[in-house]
């Protein structure tokens, strides 16, 4: 898939129009832009006046026809009435929760000790920690949130030593990359973006980057809306691409010096149920919003109906026209709601019933019905997206143990585990690419790009310290756990060497402590748990030797 030829080439490519149309729809739910939602679901009566909606309905034939699902956001307001539709940003909440579950903490990336020597492994791991500093951590969380909403993103390794001493991560939206797959893996990709227009505002300038292992080919095109157009003879034809001229050869190619792609694909979850049967879309991820769009639309309709009841439920006063005050013909009439006294003149017709002529109108506000409906829809949306309602604060802020928290958030934690299956290899692959770029272009030393990496995420719900202490106490009383395992269970984040250091500290503390009533500092008969034969090594003159010398049995209390 080289760069496209000049001419009337459709852009983006037609084979990706349906995935891009769905991503456009998910982008509307993710951003919460009500104008975007109305454009997407506006239907044939509205899409001709909106470029985004026109592209959506002309491309995706599955939504056409009389059998199209009725959508609240596709309805036009009644003539003469202002639009009062409200949006509940549950799509943004889902994407944010997904990112927080995966990237609230930085994962631990370790270098396999068997893949390189010990000193190089230590320095390589230290450099990886610099890639995942606050900036790197924030970028990965940004990628995770976009992935949950739009089904997938791409991670690109970039470098500029005038800005930062080491390479960093650039997050590319799914619609900005035209992928080329081989056996389900990303083999090549075209990254493209629109550039600012020049003198002719009708012309659309696009920069295309064709990424292959070891090479990037740049192409500058001048076309129109939906058409790629003619390829410029030089990258200097646009001011935003002039800086690329010194980097490329006569064919517009730049050697990266790295025998692999600089781009890594990060899907949300698979398999892809959304675009079944559409070629070259199987490796793309599946959005958390896929299939729940009608439910989110119904939630907005329910919330809007609730607010409509509030507006209609405002108290209104109906008075006869005779009670209105006027300043003269043609000046209108008014009624003073603060007037405390109204007097009926005797002898006039209807004076006796004038006390009943002021009436009040106030409609019922169906709070309980709307609240129950919104809560049921919200729970179903979260469940269909793979999350527990408790993860979104449905149970309030009542303190619970770690075991209870895991039970309440079981569905969310299961979804987190599934997403880690796709995030872990993508992270390791991207970090390896960053190391290669760092060594080749940034002069990094003590970094072995060939080292094998392992990434592990911390527990989403930390164990309850009180419950852990009770468990350790019971195991210790039963004699079923060593000091090493007690420290390991208390602090699972420590490696074996750090655990042994903590065990040694505990032994030193025990040996230095003098029990009460032990003036000779014998240790109170404390036996080292790691040396069960210590009882057999009693010093001469001890009570045990005296009992054996006397030939008396060692009596112990039952």
Q: Can you put this structure into words, describing what you see?
A:
Among the domains are: 80-304 and 370-462, no CATH class; 465-514, no CATH class. Strands 1, 5, 6, 7, 8, 9 and 10 form a 7-stranded antiparallel beta sheet that branches. A 3-stranded antiparallel beta sheet has the order 4-3-11, covered by helices on one side. A two-stranded antiparallel sheet has the order 2-16. The chain has 15 helices and 16 strands. Helix content is 37%, strand content 15%. Strand 6 (185-195) and strand 7 (204-212) form a beta hairpin. The protein is an alpha+beta fold and 558 residues long.
What is the gyration radius calculated from CA atoms?
36 Å
What percent of the residues sit in helical stretches (DSSP H or I)?
Answer: 25-40%
Termini gap: 85 Å
The largest β sheet comes out as: 7 strands, antiparallel
Based on secondary structure, the structural category is alpha+beta
Give the overall pLDDT as a whole number: 82
Give the overall shape. flat
Low-confidence stretches: 44-50, 59-67, 396-402, 534-544
Strand element count: 16
Give the helix tally: 15
